[in-house]
Amino acid sequence: MDEATKLESVVQSAKVSCFLNVYSMNHKALRRYSNGRTFGVERQQDFAADIAPRRPYVPYENRVNKGPNKRSRNLVWTASEGNRPRKNDNTNESVKSPVSGTGHCVSNQPRKNGANGPRSSSVSGTRGLGSRDNGSPKSRDCVCKYWKAGNCKNGELCQFLHSWSSLPGLVMVATLEGHKKDLKGIALPVGSDKLFSASSDGTLRIWDCHTGQCVHTINLQAEAGSLISEGRWVFLGLPNAVKAFNVQTSKDLHLNGVVGQVHAMTVGNGMLFAGTSSGSISVWKATETESDPFTYLTSLEGHHSGQVTCFIVGGQRLYSGSVDKTIKVWDLNTLQCTMTLRQHSDTITSLLCWDQYLFSSSLDGTIKIWACSDNGILKVTNTRRQEQSVHALCGINDGDGKPIMFSSYQNGTVSIVDLPSFEERGKMFSTHTIGTITIGPEGLLFSGDKSGKLRVWNLAGTKA
């Protein structure tokens, strides 16, 4: 083995070792996350609390719904006005100026400001979304192309970014390679020390959180379209089927009742929803029966005229987005479609609930914020126009409990902004479009891009 090969081996081992001492597996009780487990990355400051505490194991822990599920998969809606988007009080007029600074450049030209400089301001105290727009960030952070190639000779003196992010406290700690095509979902189920990932390359990979090694590669003999976890259950969307796997009991189920490739899934009000390429939404209800924990309930047909691409649950509503450019609003109690939102001009790519608002992103290059008008109809109160298509939205709370939103763009950048002010904090960078972002415990994030790379990030608590 030559010296270059030895060096490459040492570097790869160092990346994998970031997984050591991260999780402990207790087979008798639900896992508890210790503040000392950080994927080998030292936190810059102490955490006041976990950035994204995992949701309570509501729908399937006891195989029966214990009440309305009032949490979204990302940020949680506040309990006012029946957990509906708030009425428009005309204080949140549409902001037409774009969110600049979304471009991703790899350059050898000096950047004007340091990548990790202080933010311009903290979260606005006003409740209006984007009610004040202070314009574009002062510079666009650039990743050093020599650093990316592993041969920058300037080291710390280099005037360009030697990092995959420009947000203070956000560090990329590991890259898990093996998938050959874009990732369709990343899941970390409760009670397991294994990370699951599914790709359109037709494989499901299972990664050991202690070593970072891929311990199982399952040939699905079909293209995976979606992957989520809820409690101890992992759900995998396939053509004409959904697979359900319990990491505690190893129970493996094949859920029938699907017509078409499953591209999106979510859980709400004790039910599992699967959106397909045909535009239908299949629904299963959790039961108390050990031998048959999921019962096929119905299929919601004739509403979307194209592939269902995304879901989010907020309050007692389910929201579904589609390639038909619409968002459908469903009553979780009656499973009736109560509203159709038509303001986007291209495929809906992602949905997010925060506070009293619904966020939607699209290939049309916009992020729209919706709120209830006086007559109870959802209307756009703010449109953020981007320079390119938007592929994923994700929301969490930082170490101070302040909400921030991740927005993934076509060119591989992910903009990280405060809510509700939309002040940009920083960016994440990738060589390919990031199509999925999953929140983990203790400030962990998992991102998957179109090339098949799965990256593990650590977001330490920062002070405003």
Automatic annotation (TrEMBL):
Q: Which InterPro entries match?
A: Beta-prop_IP5PC_F, WD40/YVTN_repeat-like_dom_sf, WD40_PAC1, WD40_repeat_CS, WD40_repeat_dom_sf, WD40_rpt, WDR86-like, Znf_CCCH
Query: Pfam families attached here?
Result: Beta-prop_IP5PC_F, WD40, zf-CCCH
Q: Which stretches does the entry tag as region Disordered? A: 59-140
Note the segments forming the WD repeats.
176-217, 315-340, 341-370
Keyword entries, A-Z = Metal-binding, Repeat, WD repeat, Zinc, Zinc-finger
Q: Where is the composition biased (Polar residues)?
A: 91-111
Task: Tell me where in this chain the C3H1-type domain is found.
Answer: 143-165
Q: Name one GO molecular function term.
A: zinc ion binding
Zn finger (C3H1-type) location: 143-165
Q: Which SMART domains match?
A: WD40 (SM00320), ZnF_C3H1 (SM00356)
Could you tell me which PROSITE patterns the record lists for this protein? WD_REPEATS_1 (PS00678), WD_REPEATS_2 (PS50082), WD_REPEATS_REGION (PS50294), ZF_C3H1 (PS50103)
For this protein, the record's PANTHER family field holds: PTHR44489, ZINC FINGER CCCH DOMAIN-CONTAINING PROTEIN 59-RELATED
Q: Report what the protein is called.
A: C3H1-type domain-containing protein
Instruction: List the source organism.
Output: Eutrema salsugineum
